[in-house]
Design brief:
This protein is of the alpha+beta class. The protein is 31% helix and 40% strand. It starts with a helix and ends with a strand.
Length: 156
Amino acid sequence: KITPGAEKTLVEYLDLTRRSWTFMRKTNLLTVIIALLLFASCQTGIKPQALYGKWKYVKIENTDIRSITNVTPEQLEAESPYIQFSKNDSALIWWGGKLLTHGSYRVEGNQILFKEILPGGKTRAFPFVVSKLDDKNIIFETTGDDAAKVTAVKAY
């Protein structure tokens, strides 16, 4: 038989135990969330050294819904386009044996931020969003009116 004083103590103990478990679950959940955020923030982006060299375009898909025109394999073979990233943060884009454009770049996360040098000394900046990069392949997308997804292979 439980006395009234013991019953009150038991209820307080059970309430304290329930609150402790609730607190521990919230603390554990918070710890997991913090760990996931730290893990996500520590993900390494593109390393500039992985870009150095010449990348020959093997596929170009127009991703702008207003245009359904893609570059054909025959056009790619005839024009031999490529992008070249240098150690001094410069980039050159060649098309049909001629320099199409040039500028500088920097890497930020999974993006190559290209600053194109236009005639008259003007510039325009836009990102190449990289979805794949290894020692043999790169896949990146441009944005804007002429958005495209480019697949290129390392030329040795």
